[in-house]
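Continued from yesterday's entry.
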Amino acid sequence: PCLPLQPSNMAAPRIIIFTMLVSDKHDAGERMRHGTSYDEANRPFWLNTTIENNKGHCAIHSREFIVRQFPPPSLLPYHYEIGDSRCKDPDEEKEKTCKAKLNVNFYREQANWLKLRVLLDYVEADAADYFLFLDADIVFNTRRGHDPVATYIQEMNDNNVDIQWSDEDWDYRKQYPFRVGKLNGGVILVRKSEWSREYLTQLLDDHEHQKSGCGSNEQICMRGTTQGKGRLGAMEHGRVASGTRFNMHPNYAEANVSDHGEIIHFMGGAKGGLQQWDAMIPGECPYGICFHVDHCAWRLQSKSAPANTAFVWMHPLSGEPGKRFHDHHKAMKLVVARAKHLGVSFILMVPSASAAISAPLSDIERSQFKELHVNIHEVPWIIPPGAHPSLPTDCIDKKYMFIHALGLKFNVVVVLDVALEIIGDIQNLLSCASQGRFMSTSSVTSHQSDNMLAFKPSQQLFDAAVKFAQTTKFDADAENHMQPWEFALDTGHTFEPNECGAGFLWALLYGDKYGKAASEAFAKAGMKRIRHKPYTRPLAYHLDRCKWHRQIGDEGCAETCHGTLISHEKVCKM
């Protein structure tokens, strides 16, 4: 059986990518140490993470990720013979216990051999051109401009081989130099060919009859065909690729996983690292890669909004007092009602009298907001003090006001444009923000918007943003009349000239052009580098704007608002 899949759009070559879950219940009466469960409600979070990550990654690249489920494997006759020989004891209870423990290892070995049987079945069925098996504790490293599957297949074709494994050359510990060139059975790529069929058939036959060193672990058996003089033609038809790229262990790798690893293997005790690994899915985001909010929230499984949460509206106080909030009165009432329902605070952030670009907040306006139970938060500036001269200031009214929200004394903050309405359950968004994930969306016109932000505020985040604005020289392209943000995008997309807040946010958290400068700002603010990440930056992601920031005239979204949770007030009806 397969999990629900993105419809495949592959023409040629045809690729099958799969993992396997084997029942951990067997007649030995004990659980297999690395047993896994197909039942989503009961399986461990690390397994849910790998499945969701790989399913989403494959969907982004218009491929299928298949999860195969199997009952407990059967033991072979010689397994019982080994048990009779090794466990013979006058004490029947001791003999029974000995055999049970021995059979646990045999069941594990048999479960590992199943993948070769499945690969052979696929080859014989002419099901595709390539077949990629992944251990259940492996994830693709989803990042822009990288397609690990295509790269791995390209390496196979460049070397004209029919089967490809990856080694453990990431293990830089001096006492293990032999790991270089010795395959690991967690990643196996097979190309459809007569040789592949014969090779897999012979391995399975050798195992069944306990021949050629294939009576135990399948990895040892395959290694025996690729080392020394080799056998079965594996030296000519097979290849062991670099594990640093295609089988990277997250703990022992010297290089940053995010820089070099295409396929990450959380083998053995490393599975705990999957507790904080975030999954991606396709959607209306930069490069088509969106953050999987539901998977992130599943980590906590909380049914209520995090304590000390606030919704924040920002208004530059432009326009005529008494009229400047009139157009968005309905949206404000809805957001206030939603905040009250969730038990969170609602804050209106405005410039103080000295920073307002127009008339400051009037007494009548203050009274009206008080009646709505809106807390007013006045900020002393909308352009960071001491900002570098190259920081653009010819911006839309809000300018850089959102920076103040980064340091609010709340556990979670959701910044909303005054024209946005919350029309669905955003509990998962709040849950992810409480875990330190910074989330925003793109817009119809650019890769970045500052109209919907969700994050865990801190003094470090605020200080880093101010420091970044003060110390970074932003390079404008005067010849092409372009502002100084990140423009090296795959689509050649730029920001509108007055989108200072969005451009600044992209440069601070997402873009590569100012990544080093942003990293230095966060480091000076006291933030520690997140493991496996190249920069000292928060974990920042984009959400599908069709779901989290639905806008007028967004042709990238479906005609209906099904699934939309936050929308412009004139797009979706409650």
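--- second protein ---
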Amino acid sequence: MNAVMLSASAAARPVVGAAAPRRTVGVVSRVPGGVTRGNTMHTVRAATLSLARSADDLRVGSSMTAASSRFRAAAAVDTPAAAARGTPRSSRRHAARMCGIIGIHRVAGNVSAELYEGLLMLQHRGQDSAGMVTYDGERFREKKDNGLVANIFDKKVMDKLEGSVGIGHVRYPTAGGLSASEAQPFFVNSPLGIYLIHNGNLTNTAQLLQNLGARHMRTSSDSEVLLNVLAEDINAEYVKAPGTDMEKMIFDAVTNTMKKVKGAYSVITMVNQVGLFAFRDPFGIRPLVLGQRKAEGDKDEWCIASEDSAFGPLGFTRVRDVNPGEAILITSDGKMISRQCVAGQISPCIFEYIYLARPDSTLNGISVYEFQLELGRRLAKRIKERDWEIDVIVPVPDGSRPSAIEIASYLDMPYREGLVKNRYVGRTFIMPDQRTRELSVRRKLNAMRSVFNGKKVLLVDDSIVRGTTMTQIVQMCRNAGAVKVYLASAAPPVKHPNVYGVDMPSRHEFVAHERDEQGVCDLLGADGLIYQTVEDMLQAGRGMNPQIERFDASCFDANYVTGDIDEDYLQSLEGAGRGKGRKGASKVAA
């Protein structure tokens, strides 16, 4: 058996640095208590018959500003219809993009309250829907729905989510994928009974679906496809060697799954009678972090999450990142087993550090906050070369603050919080449609006249993606009395689709598409604009972890780390539900 039991000290070794919704509240899947790990699959299959019956219960089922108007008119570009093609390589299945995932194993007691707290710490990664499932060694209990974590999991729900092991998920919406049935976790009853949560995006779903044959998908999510591929591989391992130890069988199965599946995936599963099981794609594109704490009797408890910022409130200590191509099993008795299933080479998505992750997270050995500070230092040197008269530096809250602080320090200019944020409005970047994003901007931000009146202002933002939000912000600043408004983006211009789990599928929605810096500046209505360079951005990351030889910066430079993305695939994304007809939507507002 290749799986190796790790002690706490050994575990610390780092490779990369130190439809209409049907509400289901507390629904139960019954599993006969006599089934234990290592029993033959004949007994396990008897258990899944009970699960199948329960599975049916589980899842049967005008205030837009004139500036924004001008922007939309100017940004509209007529594009010829795509030439007729054969069957595209991608399928029109929607991924749950920019998700947050967490799994917790406790020695005793209910885990639901801690999953709830963990999901709150990951809420920034998705505000459309949330889901949670717990397991007490005999029954699964599930709840998922559209909405924020705090609105879905009230006391009545939480009291019914019993069990010491559980997983939770938050997601944000994609075009055509707003039904609560698309919310995770996903469940398959055979073999064993498996729940799965996934952050990322698969890039070969059409091929995977074809190979799955008769398996029926209940949603349009690529995460459900991934779950079914894993289930088929587990079943195939049993057929090949019926007497195989269950732990070895699941590691062998996920090794086969990783060889088939392409794209980005950080995954946590709960497998009936096996344990909490997590794995990460061979490039480590999306983050996944392992945490540990000691329970009474010096027993180990474990947490696996998208970001280690979820660990602090729960009392977990960061152990390490899950390595690219690695799988980790937390058995029912709390033992941590790890196997490097396929060769891995860390190539994380650099957009995580720019926008997606919390500043108090450390991913792949890089502090998100320190990375953002370094972006500010590098950009400040280039701003100084511009012949701009600047009176004050103002960040666009919240993600640009570290960079703006460093810019103000380097230029020896005052830093002011001139844009006040209404924290009861969701993130505009992850809102489902352009009009909603535009209407939200003026509710979300208010410009203070005392900061802007009579001043030449440098606005600093973490990134400028679609542009309409920034157009409105520039106009707000002018309405508040700003004499001049200059813009600085801590990220380079976004020109290419992100295919690995961020909702940026269409080139035509990017303000920098087929425009140079001056063209973007004119469209945004600013007096000057400067972007970070791609090379400075990449050097900032490499300097903080030299073991990372390559980042995925494909939305900036069109170099896709998985090597399987071509023009046909990108065209199919733009023609599918997620990217169809989207032009000049809104900028990433923190």
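Residues 238 and 244 are 7 Å apart (CA to CA). The radius of gyration is 24 Å. Will compare against the first tomorrow.
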